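ok trying this again, last paste got cut off
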Amino acid sequence: MTLISLVRHGQTDWNLAKRIQGSSDIPLNATGRAQADATGRALAGGRFDAIYASPLSRALDTGRIIAGHVGLGEPVPLAAVAERRYGEAEGLTGAEILERWPEDEPVPGRESRDEVVARALPALLELGERHPGAHVIVVSHGGVIGSIARHVTGHARPGPGEVIPNGSVHRFRYRDGALALDRFNLGPEDHDLLTASVL
């Protein structure tokens, strides 16, 4: 069995303004760097064998900060876990999106959740195969983490109104070609669970 901890990157100015980022490469702000540092310190002391990250700078820089705390080198970029593409909605707030494209109207260029799963899940399964018995960190994005969690839990998580905070950790188990959710929405206060190697 392999443990894969998916981590959401730290905050950006667009997160703060509630603007959709998608594939736009928006950097961490000071709060985001502090969140990455807090997550890294919470993970410190655990046994982690590899770290990967979306190539978008907010995820890659979060991965670099975490790697420094857990004794790993530069995160390996993993394009398949980059954020969901939102097409023409990128840079807009939720209210602006609804104004331009009312309920059920497709947003030009927006990637579906199924398309996100189709590219991200095989990459995570491949990491499980590549790192048997290991604990791997993958720094990604809220849209990707939510899509994967929904897929493997039959839409049980995230629950209604449940958000995926910046810097949060979501642990999955890989076994026999399948991924299962083990822990959802762990924060820096959950040090013992974050660093556990045995389930």
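PB: full thing came through this time. The two ends are 10 Å apart (CA to CA).
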